[in-house]
Design brief:
307 residues, mainly alpha, 0% strand, elongated
Length: 307
Amino acid sequence: MYGSSYYKLEARRMLSGGYGAAVIGAAILMIPAYLLSLIEQLIFGSANAAGFTIGSTVIEFIFSVFVTNILSVGYYRFLLSYEKTEPVNDGERIKHDHNLVVSGYTHNFANTLKVMFTRDIYMIGWLLVGLVPMLLYIGFIAFMSYSTDIISNVYDLFTQAMTSPTYDMAQNLANYIAVNCPYLPMLTMLMFFLTIAALIPFIMKNYEYSAIPMILADNPNMDKLHAFARTKDIMTGFKLRYFLIQLSFLGYSLLITIGYLLTGSQIVFIIGMLLLNPYISMTLLRFYRERNNTIEYNISFYGAHMP
């Protein structure tokens, strides 16, 4: 199995002579999400925080299902087309078809929608499982707030201590907790660690399902059952490798963030991400291609679904 540097080298080789076309493809993928954020600001800009959060979450989920998911599959299909291009005499590659970025709507849209939507639902389910300890803790705090004034008193003392911190303020808060709710610090710590533990399956499943857009880009007619089986085969034992490949781009992301902080211009951040996105996506796609070819070879040699 190869390291991050190999896949990044392969990505640069594939993008050589066609990086500008890949940036245009990334713009087709990313600009709709940026426009959505502007529309949300117009719709919810004067709304309260709760209204903004709930409303924007619903809109973003619907947008993700019908736009982002479909475009991401099309964008990977567009990048896969680089495998079929050959350099010409002047060193440039043949013209790339940007219609492929939106091909998720024309290449078995119903199947792409169903498989990607199923992935999203699965991830929401795993996330809710991971948040069970936190939800139970919030429920307990809500019950205590309703039945006693302990939580409100703790909140008031905590607010006073944070507003004008002194030793006496902190001591008053600690004494009140020790007398009235000595279990609260331990319960809070327990909730924190249980939530982290419960979120591990969510993180693992997120990596297990990460190859699905690439699989659909490669096989638009692959049904849900086989798509999830294939991504499991691809990612089993290689989730850490996939994470390390992503982590290898941290330096680039930090540079873009620093540029944004220094200039205060969102345009700088958007342009930086547009330029970086093809490199990241092609690198992950090379990982997928190598793993998928290995899986196909194993199936042809050993047969399907061997232990």
